[in-house]
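2024-03-11 09:14:02 DEBUG pipeline.ingest accepted 1 chain
2024-03-11 09:14:02 DEBUG pipeline.ingest length=235
2024-03-11 09:14:03 DEBUG pipeline.predict start
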Amino acid sequence: MSDRTAVKFYQADVFTDTVFGGNPVAVVPEADGLSDVEMQKIAREMNLSETVFVLKPTTKAAQYRLRFFTPTQEIAFAGHPVVGAFYVLVHVGIVTLYEPLTRIYQETHVGVFTVEITAREGRIRHIMMSQPAPEFLGVVEPLRDLFEVAKAVGVPKTTITGTGLPVEIVSTGFPVMVVPVRTLVHRPHTDVRVPCRRGGRSRHGFCQRRARCLSREEWRRRGGADDRDHLRAGL
């Protein structure tokens, strides 16, 4: 890419219907021809949690290939950038929308996974993505480590230990630290200098009262496909 080459990009707000809400992601729909260095420079310039680049696939099993970059490095997989990417691809006319369901296969560094887009009257209603099967990489147990976690997320340690649930490193393609808390509390600050241990690269909290998941049986009753090899996330 020369200095005068124009690269189109879009910014999408995921998990919201409000402009400047949700979780933002930058999407480069036609990234073929960009080098790794150029992709990293673009991601650094965007300065969002992730920038996603859409390329031609290297396998016949997929229709598109996605690469994910933070401002500092490429990562193997991500969640909301997939949703944002395919919303943008439909919006700009690269992906043709079929009603009621459009099924797409995307290639990533960790494999090929489905993306399902439901639509009604020409508008996207839901985007559903498959992810790698979860890997449970370790539990944070020593009180010293739990104190560091509590400090990092800005809550008292008892707010975490009182749940009776573990602080755990889990990966569906990208390791994260999952932190349970008893209630939805105000976090005055987050000390990003406290390191994630045991391979976690980011931290996610969930509230014991509000956390909810669907069993496989409930998922099927609601019309979801039975996919035993992948964790399915409705987004």
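2024-03-11 09:14:41 DEBUG pipeline.report The two ends are 34 Å apart (CA to CA).
2024-03-11 09:14:41 DEBUG pipeline.predict end
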